[in-house]
Specification:
Elements (H helix, E strand, L loop, with lengths): L10 H4 L6 H9 L2 H17 L4 H16 L16 E15 L4 E12 L2 E8 L10 E5 H4 L3 E4 L6 H15 L3 E5 L5 H12 L6 E5 L7 H13 L19 H10 L7 H25 L7 H7 L2 H12 L5 H14 L16 H24 L1 H4 L8 H6 L3 E5 L7 H23 L7 H4 L11 E6 L9 H7 L5 E7 L14 H6 L3 E4 L7 H10 L1 E7 L2 E5 L4 E5 L3 E7 L3 H5 L5 E6 L2 E7 L4 H4 L19 H12 L3 H14 L7 E3 L1 H15 L7 H21 L8 E3 L23
Parallel strand pairs: 5-10, 5-11, 6-8, 6-9, 7-8, 9-10
Antiparallel strand pairs: 1-2, 3-4, 3-17, 11-16, 12-15, 13-14, 16-17, 18-19
Keywords: Membrane, Transmembrane, Transmembrane helix
Protein name: IcmO (DotL) protein
């Protein structure tokens, strides 16, 4: 292969530094290492020529004042823990000043510099300048909530960069919702490892739509065989039921969003089907509020049968349903279902065949959606009381990973799963927007669950495979709800393939931080990044002059330089980026960055096995039960407890607790006693904690060497004496005293 780039000129060598000599000198002097060396030289000069000490003192004072007066800037923001003022973060305020005893006034703009507040670490600066390389890139809470768009081809390090953002959120103890359209098991494995490292593995949740091509009937057969051996085979996912506690209007929007778009006569049938399902969901929501049932996908599917809908209609005629729930089902049967005769509702044998046909056409609109959720993903949606509640995940700062199988499923099914996930997040956001206006600020605005010091992180990776309608609205609304939205794609064409293609422009426009890794798409994706980076003016070498002699010829750079307007980002720069390297575009800055990378040994444990937190199915308490339980507790007789204590004292028998050998507890108690009884040194609370921790750790290792089991203690078997009756007090002398 012929290398055609050996004659290519390096762009960095063509550009010229047009700063003055003084500007370049002081820029080099004020670098910390150079300034330290200069101060050392002045110190030596003062000792060598002490007669000029006033000059040296004045020079040192002037240089130090000038050095301290520098406006220190980071590539993006200054991290919060450094403190001080961040001159890149400011607000301009208009101030009106009075003059001549208030007879005249004038206004001026005052720039208010904000304190350092960087909390999101992206990586460090890439630059050939060794004095600048390695400077950290940070974003503030406000910057993060302007949202982020990440683009990178396969192998560019996009997932690893996003895991760096996840690690940021875990250090804040904030919520993390990660939707992955690539559905790689390495992702939840790594996130669980990070959660374990941060002590948050109890908050880890997994919504796994991957089935691995396993036949559900084969799984059922294996479960029956293993249950005989007391082995339980569990699906590798938590359960999820977005229909369980949502209001009926959300349930309607959820089911409608999963329908395929229709045109012409199909759109007319689609609208009729929506009216029918709306009537059903209102009734189910009413019955759920009364404690008669719990809504699930299977309940909705069973209730769609014509006979079941007619039962609800008859209940409404008998006055068992409120008007809000009865009127829609009444309108459906009396005006929306051709051939149905209300007077024959009690006798199904006299119903016209056309009634079944018409109803079948309408229910057919939802057959595929409900079959997908019930039959294919029943292991996720079959529980009445699910383990995952998106609102709970967001408000209580849990960690949720969603694996969307775009490879093993059709684009339509992957999009349907994406719609379900997106709709659940939209419901949670809508609930936290609130509705109450009357009240004080603390009651209306500050008590919302979305208020917090750190943003909640919502990552949508490989979004092109499951881009669903409604995501753009989330990006527009999430800032108020204290959420940081991240959209990650391989190319922007993927956002324009699905039915939500009209929202792709709005989504990109609502992301203020653009992060581009290695790129191969020279069309739409590169054009987006190029335009976002903008153009700049550069001083460029105008050319070379040939300098020839009798034997040799060479070229010398011309002394002149031209000013040219060029793109800040070129396709060549993006194509040659290594894994994890990229360009961050924020406001008018284009910053080369090396992403925050977490080594595999820090996020993928080779010793600990990840565990999915599975919860028990517990029926929600009902209002009548709560009232009865409250009355029972309040009426409890306090003498009942004292009577049991008196009975134990009268029998003079010790409670049947096993004797336990616990070396860890014994070591900690012994160390605590020595610390409390020591007069030589009074340990502080921190010192006591360190000592007790080390003692417990040493005792735990000793117990592990003795093979005392996973709990590091064991039950001591003692010979039980014969039972002594209350009246046989004299027999107590026959037994040795117990310590």
């Amino acid at each position: 292969m012929v290398d055609v780039t050996d004659q290519e000129l390096d762009v960095q060598k063509l550009r010229r530094d047009t700063r003055t000599l003084g500007q370049r000198f002081f820029a080099a002097l004020y670098r910390p290492q150079n300034f330290r060396n200069a101060m050392f030289v002045l110190l030596v000069a003062e000792l060598y020529w002490p007669a000029f000490w006033p000059v040296w003192i004045f020079l040192v004072w002037a240089l130090r004042m000038s050095f301290d007066d520098q406006k220190f800037r980071m590539p993006l923001r200054i991290p919060k823990d450094i403190g001080g003022l961040d001159h890149t973060d400011f607000v301009d305020e208009r101030i009106i000043e009075k003059a001549f005893w208030g007879m005249m006034s004038k206004s001026r703009i005052m720039r208010k510099i904000l304190p350092a507040a960087g909390i999101v670490y992206l990586g460090y600066l890439r630059t050939p300048d060794e004095t600048e390389a390695g400077r950290e890139l940070w974003l503030t809470n406000s910057d993060a909530r302007t949202h982020m768009f990440v683009a990178g081809t396969t192998g560019s390090g996009k997932t690893e960069s996003l895991l760096g953002l996840v690690d940021n959120a875990m250090t804040w103890c904030s919520a993390v919702l990660y939707g992955d359209g690539k559905a790689s098991l390495a992702l939840p494995f790594s996130i669980w490892g990070l959660a374990r490292r941060h002590g948050q593995e109890d908050n880890f949740q997994l919504l796994n739509f991957l089935t691995g091509g396993i036949d559900p009937f084969e799984v059922e057969r294996l479960q029956k065989e293993l249950i005989v051996k007391n082995i339980v085979m569990l699906w590798q996912s938590n359960s999820f039921n977005p229909f369980g506690s949502s209001p009926f209007d959300f349930l309607l929007q959820l089911l409608v969003s999963m329908l395929v778009k229709a045109e012409g006569s199909g759109a007319e049938w689609r609208d009729k089907a929506i009216n029918m399902i709306d009537a059903l969901l209102r009734i189910l929501a009413f019955k759920r509020a009364n404690g008669e049932l719990e809504i699930s996908v299977q309940v909705i599917r069973d209730s769609l049968a014509l006979q079941n809908l007619v039962k609800f209609y008859l209940e409404g005629q008998q006055g068992l349903l409120p008007e809000l729930a009865y009127l829609p089902i009444k309108a459906y049967f009396e005006t929306g279902l051709p051939g149905f005769v209300p007077s024959l509702a009690h006798d199904p044998t006299q119903w016209d065949k056309e009634v079944y046909n018409q109803h079948g056409y309408l229910t057919g609109q939802f057959t595929r959606v409900l079959s997908l959720l019930t039959d294919q993903y029943g292991y996720i949606f079959q529980d009445k009381y699910p383990e995952i509640d998106v609102n709970d995940t967001l408000m209580n700062n849990r960690i949720l990973v969603v694996l969307i199988p775009s490879l093993s499923k059709s684009p339509e099914e992957a999009s349907a799963v994406g719609k379900l996930y997106v709709s659940a997040i939209r419901l949670s956001m809508g609930m936290n927007l609130g509705y109450q206006l009357e009240g004080k600020k603390a009651e209306v605005l500050e008590k919302r669950g979305s208020v917090g010091r750190y943003p909640k992180l919502l990552i949508n990776d490989e979004l092109g495979y499951w881009f669903a309608i409604g995501i753009a609205v989330m990006f527009a609304q999430a800032r108020e709800l204290n959420c940081m939205m991240v959209a990650a794609v391989q190319d922007t064409q993927g956002l324009k393939r699905g039915e939500a293609k009209d929202e792709s422009g709005s989504l990109i426009a609502n992301t203020k931080v653009k992060w581009c890794l290695a790129l191969e798409d020279a069309d739409d994706t590169f054009e987006l990044i190029r335009k976002s980076g903008g153009q700049g003016y550069y001083s460029v070498l105008s050319g070379y002059n040939e300098a020839s002699s009798m034997l040799l010829s060479s070229y010398e750079a011309q002394g002149a330089a031209n000013i040219q307007e060029k793109d800040r980002i070129t396709l060549k720069e993006l194509k040659k980026l290594q894994q994890g390297e990229g360009m961050v575009i924020f406001k008018d800055s284009v910053v080369p960055v090396a992403s925050y990378y977490i080594p595999n040994e820090h996020k993928q444990s080779t010793v600990l096995a990840p565990r999915i937190n599975r919860l028990l199915q517990i029926e929600r308490p009902k209002s009548n039960r709560l009232a009865a339980a409250g009355a029972k507790v309040s009426a409890r007789n306090p003498r009942q407890a004292s009577g049991k204590v008196s009975q134990l004292l009268a029998t003079e028998t010790r409670p049947d607790y096993p004797e336990i050998e616990d070396p860890i507890l014994d070591a900690v108690v012994d160390a605590a006693s020595k610390l409390s009884g020591s007069d030589e040194h009074s340990a502080t609370a921190v010192e006591r904690g360190i000592v007790l921790y080390e003692v417990a750790l040493q005792a735990m290792r000793e117990a592990q060497r003795k093979d005392m089991g996973p709990f590091f203690h064991r039950v001591v078997e003692v010979e039980e004496p014969e039972e002594i009756a209350v009246a046989d007090y004299n027999k107590l002398d026959d037994y040795p005293d117990e310590d």
